[in-house]
């Protein structure tokens, strides 16, 4: 699949995938908490030095609005290097389980992200379970 507003690098693709996973949340407070958490994650990552979140989100949002989260995930996954795939999936798990839960809709989109990134089912299950246990008692800030 080709999208008219092309993803140009791994950082744009990663944020497009992350935002695609976050889309569909109905609780604005959860989305706001996830976005703040994402901002902190990127600020502390050498991979995203020089790539402001607002710039990356500005590129991803029109793609999401036009093509939907599933298509954007599938398209963007090819831009993610093999060495970053598991880390990106861990970031997704951390964000989506930040409230200590994973809804059915979130579980489906996390599964699609894992499949698109080439994450094995076994590793996906372990990572999700680990983050759910870790985040069970988090306060949303």
Quick rundown:
This protein has 141 residues and is mostly helical.
Describe what this molecule looks like in 3D.
This protein has 141 residues and is an all-alpha fold. The chain has one domain: Orthogonal Bundle (TerB-like). Helix content is 69%, strand content 0%. It has helices at 10-22, 28-43, 53-76, 82-96, 104-117, 121-135. Helix 3 (53-76) packs across helix 5, helix 4 (82-96) packs antiparallel against helix 5 and helix 4 (82-96) packs parallel to helix 6 (121-135). The longest helix is centred in the middle third of the chain and has 24 residues, at 53-76. The protein is globular and about 40 Å long. The termini are far apart. The mean pLDDT is 90.
Count of separate DSSP helical elements: 6
- Strand % is under 5%
Which H/E pattern describes the elements?
A: HHHHHH
Count of distinct structural domains: 1
For the report, how would you describe the main beta sheet?
none
**Second rung of CATH, namely the architecture:** Orthogonal Bundle
First and last CA, distance: 38 Å
Would you spell out the secondary-structure blueprint of this structure?
Elements (H helix, E strand, L loop, with lengths): L9 H13 L5 H16 L9 H24 L5 H15 L7 H14 L3 H15 L6
